[in-house]
Design a protein that fits this description.
single chain; 373 residues; alpha/beta; 2 domains; 7-stranded mixed sheet; 13 helices
């Protein structure tokens, strides 16, 4: 039977970042994923300079033969309403393709890789675990997204969770489609729903286009998405039909998650732990930071992976991400819909609010220092 010290289930940004941070720890780390990389992943796909710094990524090296689209602003507003440009003097984010980004992080992680393998069973055994009846480990880290098998096999009940659901498509445009796309590559467009329970986006990364919409309210998602696509065409943002089927995905917001993130011999990171930013739903940076913080907690546990030995992980997350419930979300649950619509339309039309609050604070978290761990 094969053995390892740490088994990370999920090779996305959270799992790869955790493995990368543990590369010099002396621990035998294995990353298991049901897919073979590179693999397609539905995601709007942008990263901030903070992510590059935290992962010690050289932008020039990464950009070689990969999509790396500088973003110097955003256009935001409500669907069907006036748009406001929030511009900056330098790139505040970079558009990436998750197919390329995730493989890059995984290959450089330094971990042993088990690709194309589904985690079907996870059994307790002598203070550790046996995965799929053939791999023994002291510690298992769940990094498999919202439907992470580690979370499910250790008791998480996804059926009662309030999740954000989204549909999107990413594809390479041909010459005619590029000519029929009015979206600037440097200026992604964000369109909030009138009830502020979600937003759509149209994001051009060189010759690639990513279009989608996500909502906290799961009812009639397909109708909302279809309506948004019709709006983009009628508004002249794209002159063609989206040529690929939109794919769905789901995730938990930080203020809505109640999953147990640490237990005896177990940690959850990234979307498996429900860490997407409450105001924007962006999940790449919190996923990466949770992986780095989990690696710190693992190192500090000194191979003692009891619940008590790993409890520092929860403390580190709370210090980094704050209280679970965001005041704005809590307040929004009690305001009348008409008042929400009026306030939302008014605030989104104010350039200072669009730039300094919506983009800088909610989407980019520009005021947060780079994670040191």
């Amino acid at each position: 039977m094969d053995t390892c010290d740490v088994l990370i289930v999920g090779g996305g940004p959270a799992g790869s970042s955790c493995a990368w941070k543990l590369r010099d720890s002396g621990l035998d780390v294995v990353v298991l994923d049901k897919q073979v990389f590179p693999r397609d992943k539905v995601c709007g796909g942008w990263i901030t300079p903070a992510v590059l710094s935290e992962l010690e990524i050289d932008p020039c090296e990464y950009a070689h033969k990969r999509v790396f689209q500088p973003i110097t602003g955003f256009r935001i507003g409500c669907i069907g309403g006036e748009m406001v440009d929030a511009r900056y003097d330098q790139p505040v984010s970079y558009g990436i393709r998750r197919r390329e980004f995730d493989e890059y992080l995984l290959r450089r992680s330094g971990a042993r890789l088990l690709e194309g393998i589904i985690l079907k069973t996870l059994d307790r055994h002598e203070g550790g675990w046996i995965a799929n009846g053939e791999l023994r480990t002291r510690l298992v880290v769940g990094a498999g997204g919202h439907f992470c098998p580690v979370a499910r096999l250790t008791g998480a009940k996804s059926s009662g969770e309030q999740v954000v659901v989204a549909q999107e498509a990413e594809f390479e445009m041909d010459t005619q489609q590029r000519a029929g796309c009015a979206v600037s590559p440097e200026l992604p467009e964000l369109y909030f729903c009138s009830d502020l329970k979600g937003y759509g986006w149209c994001f051009r990364k060189g010759s690639f286009l990513n279009v989608g919409l996500g909502r906290l309210d799961q009812h009639r998602l397909s109708e909302h998405v279809s309506s948004f696509l019709r709006f983009l065409k009628s508004a002249g943002r794209v002159s063609f039909e989206i040529p690929h089927a939109l794919l769905g995905h789901a995730y938990l917001l930080y203020d809505a998650s109640s999953r147990k993130i640490a237990d005896d011999g177990m940690l959850l990171i990234g979307d498996a732990a429900g860490l997407a930013y409450s105001q924007s739903g962006e999940g790449i940076r919190p996923a990466i930071e949770s992986g780095l913080l989990a690696a710190r907690a693992i190192a500090e546990a000194q191979r003692k992976y009891s619940r008590e030995g790993l409890e520092v992980y929860g403390t580190l997350l709370a210090q980094r991400f704050g209280a679970r419930e965001y005041w704005g979300t809590k307040l929004g649950r009690h305001l009348p819909l008409r008042l929400i619509q009026m306030l939302g339309k008014g605030l989104l039309g104010m350039p200072w609010f669009a730039r300094d609050v919506v983009i800088s604070r909610w989407f980019l978290h520009a005021g947060e220092a780079t994670l040191e761990c």
